Amino acid sequence: MHAAKQIETIIENIERVVVGKRQEISLSLVAILAGGHVLLEDVPGVGKTVMVKAIAKSFGAHFKRIQFTPDLLPSDVTGVSIYNQKSQEFEFRRGPIMANIVLADEINRTSPKTQSSLLEALEEGHVTIDGDTHAIEQPFFVMATQNPIEYAGTFPLPEAQLDRFLLKIKLGYPNPDEELDILNRLENHHPLDQITPVLDTADLLELRAQVGSVYIDEAMKSYLVQIVQETRNDELISLGVSPRGSIALLKAAKALALVNGRDYVLPDDIKYLAIPVLSHRLTLSTQARMSGVSAHEVIEKLINRIRVPVPKRRLTSS
Known about the structure:
- InterPro entries: ATPase_AAA-3, CbbQ/NirQ/NorQ/GpvN, ChlI/MoxR_AAA_lid, P-loop_NTPase.
- Pfam families: AAA_3, AAA_lid_2.
- This protein has helices at residues 2-15, 22-33, 48-59, 74-78, 112-124, 159-162, 176-186, 201-212, 218-231, 243-259, 267-278, 286-291, 295-304, and strands spanning 38-41, 63-67, 79-84, 89-94, 101-105, 126-129, 132-135, 141-146, 167-169, 237-239, 283-284.
- With 318 residues, the chain is of the alpha/beta class.
- The mean pLDDT is 90.
């Protein structure tokens, strides 16, 4: 499949900079191809910024970084209308959110008011300033980061905001061999400086269109719905996944199938994505939190008690 070759080229290009994180790179591409966004939760210094910059450079996309701070205003993110005395009209000055690929760094360090300014952009792909709607040029992808360790001076993202992110992933520390490789690559120059575009944004939009044609049969859809339904009935979960989560899992599964070189969805696609797609969309019960149970563990257990279906039809790859 031509799409699979293009995607592999992108992954290999990013791996020139981001060492040992092929799974996380692939998941990020799944989100981009599905038209979603990523919440990346991890400690500082593990390569979050480098990865999103490498993604942007690989597509030759317009990239912007927003450093979230407590004093950041919504207009600093979305843009502002300024009165032009010569033309006697208001002119829209685009904010950094108006880019193809945006790094929203330390999103939990800004106020809830500023956080909420992202909701419209993440969900609708546009911003509204002074009653006027301004579309964000496609493709549009936001990778937001947050530090899970430092809680002082942070504002946890509310459920409505978390629900707008297709995936939640972590990079984690490199192993000794990977860290040595990083040192060798960075000894004389930064590999990011050597990254060149291997596709363009038009290619990305074409890949997105192909995701829509990936086949998923009714058995797979029923399996997906069963998983989501179980999150609403489990005693360890006080707030289950909404229908938006079902839609997100469907889109992500189709995108993953394309990344893996298939034009049909398998149960393994759904199982593989269940944790990154659903874990941030549910709320654990007090009992679960006091017992130290994680959302990952709860999702794994409920998946294991659901019978895996056999696809009735498989389309051959082209």
